[in-house]
Amino acid sequence: MANKKITAWERVEIARNPRRKTALDYIDGIFDEFMELHGDRTFKDDKSICCGLSRIGKQNFTVIAEQKGRNTKENIERNFGMPNPESYRKAIRFMKQAEKFNRPIITFVDTKGAYPGIEAEERGQGEAIAKSMFEMARLEVPTISIIIGEGSSGGALAIAVTNKVFMLENAIYSILSPEGYSSILWKDGSRFKEAAERMKLTAKDLLDLKVIDKIIKEPMNQEFEEIVKNLKKEITVTIKDLNKLSKKDIVEERYKKFRNIGEFINL
Amino acid sequence: MIIDKIKKRETVNVKNKKSNIDIPIGKWIKCENCKEIIYKEAIRENLNICPNCGKYFRMHIGKRLELIIDEGTYKKFNLKIETTNPLNLEDYPKKLKSLREKTGLEEAVACGTGNINGEKVVICIMDSGFLMGSMGVVVGEKITYAIEKAIEQKLPLIIFSVSGGARMQEGIISLMQMAKTTAALTKLDEAGLLYISVLTDPTYGGVTASFASLGDIILAEPKAMIGFAGPRVIQQTIGKELPEGFQTAEFLLEHGFIDKIVERKDLKNTIYKLIQFHKGGKKNG
User: pTM for the full model?
Assistant: First the structure.
């Protein structure tokens, strides 16, 4: 079966498949070395976002990754990849540190959304997401985000306000889940497949809308190692280009990109 | 989510059940808090607050402008734009057209400049009557434009939020407005200008998770419901009852996420005073 015949809903299923590779699998494959570091220095180490230092050759990076579990035990520990506010505050801590030590930042996006819980609200889920985007938008180091699985809602965007946004061919990126979309907009949760087709959540649709900058191909017959190798090359080349920009231009380039997303009609 | 709740609140009880007398439609309203049937005009004269129990009703843009901005000083920005309907939904443009006709509003936010006790500001006011104040490309662009005007003219920025969040009808493009407005606020911050965010009932989702939470000062009206996830979603996720007072302005104050709860009648003077306290900022004289 050729890839182009895959429907949007099928891509949702692929993106959510529990056997799909998670952020740590990509990190292991892409970087020559990775050291995870912990904690938001305020409340706790929330494990839905995993942060650390890495390198490819002599180029150091800061890594911020939404991590789903690879089995039930891990999923409980990682809260199924649904971050609490402390995850975003940990991410902010690592962004600022990256800036201080002039390390580019690579983020991996894979979440059903920020966790909707009592404690999450008590500790300012909305504020944490807003602040994460705010700090990201003005970073003076090059940043790349990679949507590897599910990129759903503000919980995904919180770590994706980057100079370049890459997206795996079978990943999805959307305002919320197709199920949520159909139940809110059409008051009918059973129309989720139709919603998936409508929402423009596939990599191709999002490239057309200029929401993402590049699609990372996932040919069906290709080994994971190949995809990772390709991703490593893309990161290396892109960072090399972005490193040529002045600090001011890094911020400006990113600003312009987000400033111009979403066309409108002048009346 | 929150939208269902709001619709319920606006139900007008046209029959007085006790006496079974018909009440003229449109002139009376049942307060959903104290259940009293109240003459609408009496609420209007009382800043849209129930004269019986003090319940705050929502305020539309015109009324809010009257309350906050000196008479005759409001000048709305000349920015007339429309969505491209990025998801090609059949009934969305029709819905927008009928809402524009019904409400007399261009969209869910109005932005311009005006004076607060003589202090010139950039002001944005959202309106729950227009698709629940949801943020699509037009709202995102108008707010971003207002932020840019504040920077250009070195003026304080005041945003009154009321919103169900990002607008479903425009999908991912609505989500991206969170990043756009937030990025614009980094520029305002660098310019050393004051931003006062005022949260009114209800403020949720992508608006809470972007510009509404990024004020130098964050104010809220009493008992306003404010949060990221809607209460029903949280309840369904955790399968437990939500605590009393959850996600009210008072709850947020207690947890450290807003600076101050201000009664409607005091908002204008409080904002004026805050502007005075912030003079002497980088670009603020």
Answer: 0.94
Whether residues B140 and A201 touch (CB distance < 8 A) is answered with no
Query: Which residue in A167, A166, A161, A153 sits closest to A258, CA to CA?
Result: A161
Q: Give tens-digit pLDDT for B96-109.
A: 999 999 999 999 99
Q: CATH code for A3-257?
A: 3.90.226.10
- Rounded to an integer, what distance in angstroms lies between the CA atom of residue B235 and that of residue A208? 37
Confidence of residue B280 (pLDDT cuts 50, 70, 90): confident
Please determine, for residue B4, whether its predicted confidence score (pLDDT) is greater than 90: no
Question: Do residues B51 and B157 share a domain?
Answer: no
Residues B269 and B181 in one domain: yes
Whether residue B171 is contained in a domain is answered as yes
State whether residue B183 sits within 8 Å of chain A by CB. yes
Looking at the fold, whether B149 and B207 belong to one and the same domain comes out as yes
Same domain flag for B197 and B247: yes
How many structural domains are present in chain B?
2
The angle subtended at Cα B214 by Cα B248 and Cα B259, nearest 5°, is 50
Contact call for A127 and B213, based on CB within 8 A: yes
| Statement to judge: residues B225 and B180 lie in one domain | yes
pLDDT on residue B283: 57
> CB distance A161–B183 less than 8 Å?
yes
Q: Tell me the pLDDT band of A220, cut-offs 50, 70 and 90.
A: confident
Rg (CA), chain A: 18
Name the nearest CA neighbour of B159 among B176, B178, B146, B177.
B146
Task: Give A-chain residues touching B255 at CB under 8 angstroms.
Answer: 122-124
Closest chain B CA to residue A257: B180
B97 touches chain A (CB under 8 A): no
User: Same domain for B38 and B150?
Assistant: no
For residues A99 and A103, give the distance between their C-alpha atoms in angstroms, rounded to a whole number.
6
Share of chain A above pLDDT 90, in %: 95
Q: What's the CA gap between A249 and B151, in Å, rounded?
A: 19
**Searching chain A, which residue's CA lies closest to the CA of residue B240?**
A118
Which residues from B are below 8 Å from A211, CB to CB? 172-173, 176
Complex ipTM over 0.95: yes
Residue B172, pLDDT > 90, answer: yes
Residue B283 falls inside a structural domain? no
Domain encompassing residue B264: 59-277
Domain extents in chain A: 3-257
- Do B131 and B172 fall into the same domain? yes
What pLDDT is stored for residue B27 in this prediction? 84
